[in-house]
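Late entry, written up from scratch paper. The run itself happened at the end of the previous shift, but nothing got recorded in the book at the time, so transcribing now.
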Amino acid sequence: MDWNGRIVFITGASSGIGAACARAFGRAGARLLLAARRRKRLSEVAAEAGGGIPGRVLELELDVRDERAVARALAALPEEWSAIDVLINNAGLSRGLAKLHEGELADWEEMIDTNVKGLLYVTRAVLPGMVARGRGHVINLGSIAGHESYPGGNVYCASKAAVKALTSALRMDLVDTPIRVSTIDPGLVETEFSLVRFHGDAARAAQVYQGLEPLTANDVAEVLLLPTAQASATVVHRRP
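Output as recorded:
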């Protein structure tokens, strides 16, 4: 596909899979709308992904958990950046690995607010424009954790199961439109994920990947699935 000039909006773009997606789409010639909380890291990714070409990247310092901030940021986009072609809902995280009865409420809220509500806020702000223009692609970053739970993964797994369900429902909502909806559900990917999960404990985070060769962020960024008029086994849109 020719990405030259197309606008790709990536949340959580300051590191990991989001940053890898920015670099991949940048190499393909896309214009990049990059959002993240860490402005310095975001600017570093933007400089690399944009290849130094003026007007190729627009940075948004944004916390997707803040619904009002998301709405304001999208409403205030310059006209030349408003026609988003691809939305990559990548912002997400895991906190802790405790049993449910020992879990921290603050960790639960951060995961749900980011992984589920943040995805909803951003999609709600972007999708009407795609529908009105009759084109667009929403890509949600899920996880194998959304398909099968694991010990201590309770709330994180639940949040990714919600992403799976929302993606399926969104396909059905949009089955009579040209809008595409995809999800990418990777397994172990060596990024900052485990470092964030364990609140900066680098030694514990490193143990997650010992004795195996995990995926890299670049591996995930190079995977793209393109469903079109079929939303499920039985829900399809047939042209008259």
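The domain at 7-187 is CATH 3.40.50.720 (Rossmann fold).
(Scratch paper discarded after transcription.)
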